[in-house]
Amino acid sequence: MKPMPENLKYAVSHEWSKLEENNRVRIGITDFAQSELGDIVFIDLPEVGRKVELGEQIAVVESVKTASDLYSPVNGEIVAVNEALEDEPERVNDDAFNTWLFVIEAKDPAELDALMDADAYLNMIDA
After folding, report:
1. How far apart are CA 90 and CA 6, in angstroms?
2. Which residues are CB-contacts of 66 (< 8 A; sequence separation ≥ 6)?
3. Torsion angle of alpha carbons 90, 84, 11, 116, nearest 10°?
4. What is the pTM of this model?
5. Residues with Cβ < 8 Å from 60, sequence gap 6 or more?
């Protein structure tokens, strides 16, 4: 498994979140998640402009083995999706921590404080 970036926050459901300027949160899935899923063949991304709530199921990653739901780490609005993944979803397998899926403009970025840091996430997946 690749090293865990320290600048990200991690969800129990294996998404990573990165707080950026203007309360924007860039979201992807962890390297552990992509390795467990296997070869990713499709990603059902949310629509730009969609209002989302903390904990709401907002996307699906499909692999040759299974499908996995992705959840919003914050309340807010989808402001961008990684359209390159429509034709090349395998980019997530190639580099999960540098392949974002979507961006949410958070109403309250402090909601990210409820997520795990890299050490806590590693402890969870090693348990």
Report:
1. 24
2. 37
3. 100
4. 0.95
5. 43, 44, 67, 68, 69, 70
Contact 44, 60 (CB under 8 A): yes
What backbone phi and psi angles, to 5 degrees, belong to 21? Answer: -60, 155
* Domains of the chain with CATH codes: 9-126 (2.40.50.100)
CB 73 within 8 A of CB 25: yes
Counting every residue, how long is the chain? 127
Residue-wise pLDDT for 78-118, tens only, equals 999 999 999 999 999 999 999 999 999 999 999 999 999 99
| CA dihedral for 100, 104, 105, 110, sign (positive or negative) | negative
The residue behind tokens 């924007």 is: 24
Q: What is the pLDDT of residue 112?
A: 97
